[in-house]
Amino acid sequence: MMTSSFFPPQRTLMGPGPSDVSPRVLGALSRPTIGHLDPLFVQLMDEIKELLQYAFQTENALTLPISAPGSAGMEACFVNLVSPGDTVIVCQNGVFGGRMKENVERCGGTAVMVEDAWGEPVSTDKVRAAFAEHPQASLLAFVHAETSTGVRSDAQALCALARENGALSIVDAVTSLAGIEVKVDAWGADAVYSGTQKCLSCIPGISPVTFSQRAVERIQNRSHKVQSWFLDMQLVMGYWGGSAKRAYHHTAPVNDLYALHESLVMLQEEGLEAAFARHLRNHRALVAGLEAMGLSMAVAAEHRLPQLNAVNIPAGVDDGAVRAALLNDYDLEIGAGLGALAGKTWRIGLMGSASTERNVVYCLTALEAVLSRQGASIKKGAALDAASAVFSA
Q1: Residue 375 DSSP one-character state
Q2: β-pair type (207-211, 191-193)
Q3: Residue 78: which domain range?
Q4: Cα–chain-centroid distance for residue 348?
Q5: 291-314 pLDDT, tens digit each
Q6: Which residues carry this modification: N6-(pyridoxal phosphate)lysine (predicted)?
Q7: The domain boundary residue, chosen from 242, 269, 296
Q8: Do 230 and 310 share a structural domain?
Q9: How many C-beta neighbours within 10 Å does residue 110 have?
Q10: What percent of the chain has pLDDT over 70?
Q11: What is the CATH number of the domain that holds 75?
């Protein structure tokens, strides 16, 4: 049997990620491949580091893209900072806090869990109490923007609590970077990881990370080898370090890094504050339209992520059938709920290049049509007027 080339359809990606990739980024991906030790590529690496420092709002020297998805960025932070016997306070208010716990345990550490309801932010009071009960804790790990629920936690306050208690912080900024404020230096965050496929609107497969000087010192003073050779920052820095002469560590995904560079150039051109304002404006219009239609949001307004909107599924509506109809009839992808929220919520992404007025209007129009065909009790024709009022304002 002869297999032909694969040509995917043109989808509108409004789920939890990946997000739509800009034509500029796709164009960068197709440029000629050069060697990963080529002097020109080394120059590009330095530019990527500087652009990531801008995105993270940090001067951390150890700022770089891991050659693997966001999950590898998470693992890089844990394997470098957690040693056997360490006590780590782990906050869980969704799926990804659970993955942090798994990482701690695989590193031989003890995870002290601080749990909050899915759909609620991490409680700083509970974290404060956990430090009081476990003064030996040397790390605090939490998710800034919980992708499974669309909730934002107070990263600044949580990083401050870690510092007050002599602990380092590990922060999941996979969904937050370039969508809402991430101020690594101002917050005193110690290890932060993200992903390229969310608000950076790049292709999946790269994980930006940054480590503070305190984190670097902890890595340098380890008494045990980092359990992952590939993610050992002391080895990786031989390749991503500041000198012109780079030590071979691995073959970098050259074309993927062209794409990341282009997406970061686009972010710099737009400016962080403008990007945040765009995400917020489109979020407000989407929410206005959904609520005018008769749907409700799953997260309180003050804790919502503008780039990832959790919507309650109306009673009697077939979750899977709605998402399938959107995909098959409109080439529109929205996300299902995860874990405790499976079958209860939809997750509608407005991330990066997908965060546009056009996509807000398209999503509202398509969702209204599909829900109407299912016989859902919604107010027809009200959504676009409500969204338009936000855009006009």
Answers
A1: T
A2: antiparallel
A3: 23-269
A4: 14
A5: 999 999 999 999 999 999 999 999
A6: 198
A7: 269
A8: no
A9: 17
A10: 99
A11: 3.40.640.10
Q: Give a yes or no: residue 31 inside a domain.
A: yes
Mean pLDDT of all residues in the chain? Answer: 96
Q: Report how many domains make up the chain.
A: 2
* 34 three-class SS: coil
- Residue 291: which CATH number? 3.90.1150.10
**6: number of CA atoms within 13 Å, CB side?**
1
**SS3 assignment, position 157:** helix
* pLDDT tens digits, one per residue of 314-353: 999 999 999 999 999 999 999 999 988 999 999 999 999 9
> What is d(CA 15, CA 18) in angstroms, rounded to the nearest whole number?
7
Dihedral angle computed from the Cα positions of residues 207, 59, 141 and 146, in that order, rounded to the nearest 10 degrees: -60
- Residue 115 shares a structural domain with residue 238: yes
Is the CB of residue 371 less than 8 Å from the CB of residue 323? no
Distance of alpha carbon 261 from alpha carbon 34, whole angstroms: 15
Structure tokens, 373: 């065909």
So what's the pLDDT on residue 161? 98
- Please enumerate in sequence order all residues whose Cβ is within 8 A of that of 103, keeping only pairs 6 or more positions apart, or say none: 74, 75, 78, 79, 82
Non-local CB neighbours of 306 within 8 Å, separated by 6+ positions: 179, 180, 279, 280, 282, 283, 284, 350
Report the binding-site residues for substrate. 347
User: Is 61 in the same domain as 176?
Assistant: yes
> The dihedral of CA 224, 237, 254, 14: what is its sign?
positive
Supply the pTM of this predicted model.
0.97
pLDDT tens across 59-91, in order? Answer: 999 999 999 999 999 999 999 999 999 999 999
For 43, 61, 87, 137, the CA distances from 70, given in Å and listed in that order, are 24, 20, 24, 25
pLDDT surpasses 80 at 245:
no
| 177-207 tens-digit pLDDT | 999 999 999 999 999 999 999 999 999 999 9
How many residues does this entry show for the chain?
A: 393
Per the annotation, binding residues are: 347
In the chain, how many H helices and how many E strands?
Answer: 14, 14
